[in-house]
Amino acid sequence: MQIMISTIKSNRNIPEVVLKAAIHLFTEQGYFNTSVPDIVKKSGVSTGSIYHHFGDKTGIAKALFEMLVKRMENAFDDIERKHDSVQSRLRAVIEYLFQLTEEEPEVMTYMLFIKHKEIMPNMAPVCSSKPFTKMRQMVVDGMANGEIKTMDNMVAAASLFGGAFRLISLRLDGVLERPLMEYQDELWRCAWQSVQK
Amino acid sequence: MQIMISTIKSNRNIPEVVLKAAIHLFTEQGYFNTSVPDIVKKSGVSTGSIYHHFGDKTGIAKALFEMLVKRMENAFDDIERKHDSVQSRLRAVIEYLFQLTEEEPEVMTYMLFIKHKEIMPNMAPVCSSKPFTKMRQMVVDGMANGEIKTMDNMVAAASLFGGAFRLISLRLDGVLERPLMEYQDELWRCAWQSVQK
DNA sequence: GTCTATATCCAGATAGAC
DNA sequence: GTCTATCTGGATATAGAC
User: Of A16, A159, A167, A191, which is least packed with CB atoms within 10 Å of its CB?
Assistant: First the structure.
């Protein structure tokens, strides 16, 4: 591997600082309430550079989304490597989602609650993205090996993850005042019990 | 009661036809991708009349939201009148939500998945609106009378309704091909089981 | 690759006749 | 109360120097 001289010459990574400003503005005030001049001000990067790197405004949203989806996918791959039983995998997934919500609420908001179809009209819904199909696959595996009661896959997945997503949503909306970790054990007991015989 | 002569004079109710056009456009392409001229074209009502009735563009979104929230609140009041046990009330609520999703997907989309805070920055989140607090109150009642295991209110509500909301979301995103009614019984068994001793 | 200056367009909103 | 015609600001995007 060669040393990346180009990154040494410039002391900042423009795409990175733009994306950081963008996720903050998009989740705070919404994509459509955020103008490119807003991003210019917040990031300190000029209009010209932004368009050079991202093509247009939707390019920023797209780059951000792809980065975050990839990141979550990697996290789930990690979980599959570290846990054998479906039960402990599913629990770890929920723990990861709760932690991410607490530590980087903007990331979670951007992934779950931004209507990407409005920004990029021909994009598939988030729930069809790799990490989400992976979650459903775990459930299918659990049914195959008998850990989970036999039933419709979608119903099982919805029952297992639905409560967690509700709590995440309530937390991001400011309705839950205490951190999600405090609800985790009790929620998981309910979720797991819902798919037992 | 007097006969409403004014409604006889004009053969159409302008706010109504505007709201009908608006909910279609807002859910189809998003609030911010919909211009007032779009609504003018779709509704056949002039710019001037629209501004006369609604004040500004956000006024349309607001009127629509208030109407739909009120309607859902009334539906839940009906349910409380018709059912005594908490179990049958909760089941009826989910049945209502599933039916509404199938019959008027735009209404459900507008209530659940439009980011109203982006449109009206100082609006409370949907989950704080009357119908949603009513749903949580039912759960609290069920815990008080012993139908539901004693636990955190929010966890119980999330466990009971989370799966239903997931399925609604998947259905509106086109991921579930079959109508929600077909999943209803199985989902409810899971949801109810999740909060039993 | 990064910047400033600028073009173009169309949105939201208003004026004022009827 | 309803309409048409019109104003104005600010958004996205580009041109072109450095």
Answer: A16
Mark which of B34, B55, B76 sits at the end of a domain.
Answer: B55
Helix (DSSP H) and strand (DSSP E) numbers for chain A = 11, 0
Same domain, B143 and B176: yes
Q: Which of A125, A155, A173 comes nearest B187 by C-beta?
A: A155
CA distance A76 to A131: 7
Structurally, how many domains does chain B consist of? 2
Residue pLDDT, tens place only, A30-74: 999 999 999 999 999 999 999 999 999 999 999 999 999 999 999
User: Token pair 């609140």 is at which residue?
Assistant: B73
pLDDT in tens, B71-91: 999 999 999 999 999 999 999
Chain A's closest residue to B181, CA to CA, is A155
Question: Which chain C nucleotides are covered by protein, judged by CB under 7 A?
Answer: 1-6, 10-17
* Same domain (yes/no): B81, B144: yes
Return the H-helix or E-strand segment holding B34. Answer: none
Q: Which residues of A touch B (CB under 8 A)?
A: 29-33, 113, 115, 117-118, 121, 125, 127-128, 151-152, 154-159, 161-167, 169-170, 173-176, 183, 186-187, 190-191, 193-196
